[in-house]
Amino acid sequence: MEPDQRRAMIVAAALPLVIEFGASVTTAKIARAAGIGEGTIFRVFPDKDTLLAACMAEAVRPDDIVAHLESIALDQPLADRLTEAADVVRGHMARIGAVAGALAAAGRLERVTTPKPGQGGRLPDREAGLARPRAALAALFEPDREALRLAPERLADAFQLLLMSAGRPGAPDPLTTEELVDLFLHGALAAPGEAG
Questions:
Q1: Are 133 and 90 in contact (CB under 8 A)?
Q2: Which domain holds residue 113?
């Protein structure tokens, strides 16, 4: 197995364990989950913090979310496309939050996300991580371009920001995905006779 493949396999095995056990997960437990010897981990990662940083970087990596967004059928109504997209985005944010929360609870989040001297950033650029999903969201608005008040790109940016702010941990009475999409598409004012 190539080093990059082995690295990806170890991170894939470690991610659910980091979510469950946080930074206290042992490399022995990760090795068992990956079906490898513990020494193999240290042939790929110089230390546990580097492995934890790779888990955090994997959690924020946008490849999976973009693939999911691009697979949404464009022939369904806009509300259905956005509901499916919102579920995908919220799931991605929940995964990021679970990994970050687990590392923060152990006081390790800053340690694994802060660049080491001479190594540059340990996490991908935030804006770069948001740009690809935003472009995929814009494509979901595109079939309805003529009926939209704003360009698909601007709507995608606003929708992404709404999803990110609505998904914050500890929000009292969080909106459902359907409520978020309805609010985005129809605004805060109820139609006559519809007030709740």
A1: no
A2: 3-186
Query: For residue 98, what are its two tokens?
Result: 């679970």
Distance of CA 130 to the CA centre of its chain: 9
Q: Record the tokens describing residue 169, joined without a space.
A: 């941990």
Residue with tokens 């129809």: 186
Domain count, the chain: 1
Does 192 map to a domain?
Answer: no
The rounded distance, in Å, linking the Cα atoms of 89 and 104 is: 22
Write the DSSP symbol of residue 136. H
Query: Residue 195 falls within a domain, yes or no?
Result: no
pLDDT in tens, 162-181: 998 886 666 678 889 999 99
Name the pTM for this structure.
0.81
Measured from the Cβ of residue 125, the count of other Cβ atoms closer than 10 Å reads 9
- The answer to whether residue 196 sits within a structural domain is no
